[in-house]
Amino acid sequence: MTKQTGRRDTQRVLLPRIGAQISTAGGFAPVPARAAAIGAEVVQVFNSNSRTWRTIARDPEELAALTAGLGRLHAPLFFHTIYLINLASPDEALRRRSGHAVAEALALGALVQAAGVVTHVGSHRGEGLQKAIGWVAETIDAAIAGAEESLSGECSGPVLPPLLLETGAGSGQTVGGRLEELATLLASLPPQSGLCLDTAHMFAAGYPIHEAKGLEEVVAELRDRDLLRRVGLIHLNDSLTRYDSRHDRHANPGEGYIGYDALARVVRHPALAHIPFVLEVPGPDGRGPGAANVTLVKTMRAGVPSPPTVPAPGA
């Protein structure tokens, strides 16, 4: 009789990091403590005021506090650029200003060893996708060159983080609401460029990620277009608007039209397990993601069924 050893082989399941957009009120120094307080494993912040062009001069001690604090948490950092950026605009002056803002974010990201810089692409304002692709590529090339030039005096030789183009909600004449548009764009951009997927935006743009079959179709399209390997971050947001609405309105996880179960499928999808997730949601008090939001997504990650206290979508 063969002796049974009783040993059972197990395979470690890879699970993604869960984090949130963190307030920078008072500067960068308080960010690590705020991230720790809500249990964030990955952090996203705006590199400057999200609704103005004004550049904020950052003190080296402030940057050191941010880097050291997040290092102790082992939490990767992502910057999000300001909302005013339009890389696809037919207005050359606006494109130049947008490129300068991206360059500032990339340079600052290099100084604090950010894992990536997320930006919206913008709108072609009726001029068409083909012209927009050329404008976006030209503007991003200039932004990267500008960021590298601004860092040329740094003795440590910091490396620029990847620039991640965010998927859009498909409204109006914005660029990036379809994966085929982003694939075409990335083909004309430097190889360090990549993607940031946003679940609320994709849902609003007509990608059926709220259905199990639909999610598999989206993952398959990402693979087919050679985009999956270039996804550097996922914004895990529920949606206040219905499927294919073309409107960008975020809801707390489990409280919108995508819902707990569908978001849980996204978080637990094996093809996405290597990608960090960040919440950009109103939170319990309208001031941004809180500990309860992060904890709920960690519950999704653990495979726990939908809690009965979570409101039904649209309730």
Q: What's the CATH topology label?
A: TIM Barrel
User: What is the strand arrangement across the widest sheet?
Assistant: 1-2-3-4-5-6-7-10
In this structure, how is the largest beta sheet organized?
Answer: 8 strands, parallel, barrel
User: Which structural category do the helix and sheet elements fall into?
Assistant: alpha/beta
- Based on CA atoms alone, the radius of gyration comes out at 20 Å
Total count of helical runs of at least 4 residues: 9
Tally of distinct domains? 1
General shape: globular
SSE ordering: EHEHEHEHEHEHHEEEHEH
The CATH class, by name, is Alpha Beta
User: Helix proportion of residues, in percent?
Assistant: 25-40%
Oligomer: single chain
Any idea what the CATH superfamily is called?
A: Divalent-metal-dependent TIM barrel enzymes
Which spans have pLDDT < 50 for at least 5 consecutive residues? 1-10
Quote the beta fraction.
Answer: 5-15%
Please give the alpha-carbon distance between the first and last residues. Answer: 62 Å
Annotated CATH architecture:
Alpha-Beta Barrel
Mean pLDDT: 93
Q: If you had to describe this structure to a student in words, what would you say it looks like?
A:
The protein has 315 residues and is α/β, with parallel strands linked by helices. It has one domain (18-301): TIM Barrel, CATH 3.20.20. It is built from nine helices and ten strands. The strands form two sheets. Strands 1-2-3-4-5-6-7-10 form an eight-stranded parallel barrel. It has a two-stranded antiparallel sheet with strand order 8-9. Helix 3 (92-111) crosses helix 4 (129-150). The chain is globular.
